Amino acid sequence: MSELPEPVDIMGAPVAPWTMSQTVGFIERAIDEGRFLQHVVVNATKLANMRTDPGLREAVLGAELINADGMGVLLAGRVLGRPIPERVTGIDLFGELLALAERRGWGVYLLGAKPEVIEVCAAKVREKYPDLEVHFHDGYFWDEEEAQVERVRASGAKLLFVGISSPMKEQFIDRWGETMGVAFAMGVGGTFDVWAGKVRRAPEGWQRAGMEWAWRVREEPRRMAKRALTTNTRFLMALARTWVSERLHV
């Protein structure tokens, strides 16, 4: 693993400046070596919220691997002189790891979303990866959290994907970690909703242009527009302060 570039500091988060293939290779080697690996992706929203939410910041910084999900993180890398080669989005990494798990004979556990959503998502995953062992449970387990941890452990799954909102998914993984018996755990946000067909993902052209956030605003204007505006403003202001602070210390 020594050939991989070291993580770079992006506004307080040590982000791996890796491609998708490098990331998947690193995860596979870590699992083979028997090391528990907690994975997190960061975007502009998460970087901005980390500055005011100590619990989120602690959970993110506790992860062994952090990738850049959003174009805002790539922008920050360029502005700060620490470029990141490409986005490694949570939803795309999810698909890559499902394929890897099927090849290697590793079971997976899908945790999160509404009962009817996760059932459809699991069925779609099994349809695409027929040789993959899939376990799942909805995201309504908070009154029996320890029992849910035991369900994950009893499943024998190697990879855990948690589809609940931030900061709960990061904190849940950070809180229980390897006690769940898995070798790898990552939060996947709304990925299960996309796989289940409840939410449409941006077309590939929008993805390549780094405009998935704009697509989400287009699809859910009432919920996303204000959030995108306020969060992006806080992110850009924080990036500007970071840039100025670093230049003053040169």
List keywords for this structure.
about 250 residues, alpha/beta, 6-stranded parallel β-sheet, two-stranded antiparallel sheet, 12 helices, about 55% helix, about 15% strand, globular
Written overview of the protein:
- The protein has helices at residues 20-32, 44-50, 54-61, 71-79, 90-104, 115-128, 145-155, 168-176, 191-195, 204-208, 212-219, 221-248, and strands at 8-10, 13-15, 37-42, 65-68, 108-112, 134-137, 159-163, 184-187.
- The chain is an alpha/beta fold.
- The protein has one domain.
- β1 (8-10) and β2 (13-15) form a beta hairpin.
- The protein is globular, with a radius of gyration of 18 Å.
